[in-house]
């Protein structure tokens, strides 16, 4: 990851890598003034869906090592790409994890 984002041979070392610095922008995601046509905001309703961000999840996001019984699974490059730091995440969960999620059901 460090090599592909230009951080592998940084003079100050890999420890100076900031959170999110190794994140790679998705070239397929819509970016105004980069890969959307002029006037995309005024597109007819029938094709407006072409210019919206669609996020899905697939099997690549499974936590397979947890299923193998590896409880202390160290992160490589904690917070360097698209995930927050483990320490900050666990602090947040300790602070707010007891709260019950509120779900709203909308019935037509």
Structural features, described:
By secondary structure, the chain is low in regular secondary structure. It is 14% helix and 0% strand. The chain has two helices and no strands. It has helices at residues 64-67, 86-96. The radius of gyration is 20 Å and the shape is flat.
Fold topology:
Layout: H1 64-67, H2 86-96
Fraction of helical residues: 10-25%
Radius of gyration: 20 Å
Global shape: flat
Give helix and strand order, one letter per element, not per position: HH
Class from secondary-structure proportions: little secondary structure
Characterize the main sheet.
none
Distance between the termini: 46 Å
Quaternary assembly: single chain
Range of strand content: under 5%
Uncertain residue ranges = none
Q: What is the mean predicted local confidence, pLDDT?
A: 82
| Number of DSSP helical runs | 2
- Report the count of strand segments: 0
